[in-house]
Amino acid sequence: MKFKFIASHSLTVREEPHPHLWRVDVSISGEPQNGMIVNLQQIRSAFDAILLPLHNTFLNENAALPAVAQAAPTCETLSDYLFSAFDACLQAEFLPHNPTLQLASVEVAICEPDGFEWGSVRRTRSLIAPQA
Description:
This protein is an alpha+beta fold. The chain contains three helices and four strands; from the N terminus they run ββαααββ.
């Protein structure tokens, strides 16, 4: 699933606030149940709701983001935040309908408002289980 939003940020390498087009690419996995892994219209709507508070904002001052993402709103910090937020949404709203459903990855690309892409970062589910 692909999403996009416009938001500005400021970084130490360029301190004046400036806008970007942010592209978000989300991949899910799981075993189909009744012909589908998940209802794509419902999941798109749920993920749109997570992204809505970021639209047309100054990310450095956006209270919807964790402190680390506000301090440095980059592809790295945004992909970490969105992976966590989307994963929590899947767990709460969609996992009861398909217990095999998993968030596979979230990629965030930073682009100029005209669409030129500077680059992207993909956050994936860790393949290594946490050690107890």
